[in-house]
Amino acid sequence: MIQQTLVLLKPDAVQRGFTGKIIERFENVGLKIVAMKMVKIDTAQAEKHYFDIAQRHGKKVLDSLVGYITQGPVIAMILEGVNAVENVRKMVGSTYPNEATPGTIRGDYSHISKQYANDNNKVISNLIHASAKPKEAEYEIKLWFKTEEIYDYKITDEMHVM
Ligand code: ADP
Questions:
Q1: How far apart are the C-alpha atoms of 69 and 84, rounded to whole Å?
Q2: Beta-carbon neighbour count of residue 10 at 10 Å?
Q3: What is the pLDDT along the chain (162 residues), one digit of tens a residue?
Q4: What's the CA gap between 116 and 61, in Å, rounded?
């Protein structure tokens, strides 16, 4: 099934100069970029994006996460492809970088553990966000992009890969 998913290159990915390398991975597998922009979001937008984090991880994680995602610009994009939500999550790797397999984005460019982050009051800087489920993708795409910012065009991969 052809799906769309939301990806954010978080402030650490932008500041460490990894955006090109990460985008290249998605292009390499034939995923189509149908929307993309650089944006510095405010606390209200961050809280909408992470609306369920306090429930899942506690208020402390929510606060540090909002601080992290708002501290610099991010690159937001919508990727389209076959089972894009699941495929992109697989390429992103585990939430906790020390558990992320080498070859995944988080596994290749980060290594912090949940324990270290919690013991040292640090956020888990793991470079990238990707929608976890199709319903979440639907919500996040609407939150981050207007309809007119999403493009419909053809890529050659539609003949060879999709
Ligand atoms: P994912 O980003 O893999 O979907 P979650 O939605 O569970 O993971 O968490 C959102 C983000 O919150 C993570 O990407 C990470 O940056 C941060 N995070 C998660 N758990 C913790 C934690 N225990 N301490 C600090 N930051 C955390």
A1: 23
A2: 21
A3: 999 999 999 999 999 999 999 999 999 999 999 999 999 999 999 999 999 999 999 999 999 999 999 999 999 999 999 999 999 999 999 999 999 999 999 999 999 999 999 999 999 999 999 999 999 999 999 999 999 999 999 999 899 988
A4: 14
129 is catalytic: yes
Q: Which of 66, 95, 127 is the pocket-test mutation for ligand 1 (most atoms within 8 Å of CB)?
A: 95
- Ligand 1 in reach of 124 Cβ (< 6 A): yes
* DSSP-derived pairing of the beta strands 74-82 and 32-39: antiparallel
What's the rounded Cα separation, in Å, for the pair 10 and 39? Answer: 10
* CA proximity to 39, closest of 78, 9, 74, 71: 74
The pLDDT score that the predictor gives to residue 26 is 98
Task: Give the C-alpha separation, 127 to 16, whole Å.
Answer: 9
Ligand 1 within 6 A of CB of 95: yes
Q: Give domain limits for the chain.
A: 2-40+73-148
CA gap 68, 122 in Å, rounded: 10
CATH topology of domain 2-40+73-148: Alpha-Beta Plaits (3.30.70)
